[in-house]
Design brief:
By secondary structure, this protein is mainly α. Helix content is 54%, strand content 0%. α2 crosses α4 (45-58), α3 packs across α4 and α6 crosses α7.
Length: 179
């Protein structure tokens, strides 16, 4: 998985990681198996196979890391303004219900900052700043919470039958002792 700032590694660790990747080229040339290389380097076999494919196509130079992902289109200052806009709610931006979807957030970003970004890009920006996916509770507008609470406390226990009889039982479908 690729993270911002080189995966959170220091400059020394990034250099060390590049040396590990370039060193696999020598091991590929010797014909070592992916399983052995993966176990030695403590990486997945799949990564080693991906590196081997790159090495076959482009040599040792192809084993170099492509670097961190490209920077977000929405800066930190813009995101603080976006949070204010999101705090106003969807109705303030012309939507009738109280749900923020990625498509709606993308539209707000486009209108407010004149930036065009993908829905996946919006998700990455929100996720990077600690926002998470939420599922709204679907409840009727006419719902009376007090009445529901009373019903759960008083009526429901009387209506529900016990789920299981107490006593010994058998998990067999046939009668015990029948041959």
């Amino acid at each position: 998985m690729r993270y911002a700032q080189g995966g959170g590694l220091t400059a020394e660790r990034q250099v060390q990681r590049e040396q590990v990747r370039s060193g696999t080229g020598v091991r590929f040339a010797r014909g070592e198996r992916a399983l052995v290389i993966a176990r030695d380097l403590r990486v997945s076999e799949r990564s080693v196979e991906r590196w081997r494919r790159a090495w076959r196509e482009g040599g040792v130079e192809a084993l170099r890391s492509v670097g961190p992902p490209k920077a977000s289109k929405v800066s930190d200052e813009q995101f603080t303004l976006l949070e204010v806009e999101l705090g106003r709610g969807p109705t303030a931006h012309g939507w009738e219900d109280q749900r923020w979807t990625l498509e709606r957030v993308r539209a707000v970003i486009e209108r407010r900052f004149r930036l065009v970004c993908s829905v996946a890009g919006v998700w990455r920006v929100l996720h990077r700043h600690g926002w998470s996916w939420q599922s709204p509770a679907r409840r009727a507008v006419e719902r009376d919470e007090d009445a529901v609470g009373l019903w759960k406390k008083d009526v429901c226990p009387q209506v529900e039958a016990p789920r299981r009889r107490s006593g010994l039982g058998s998990s067999l479908r046939t009668r015990p002792g029948s041959r």
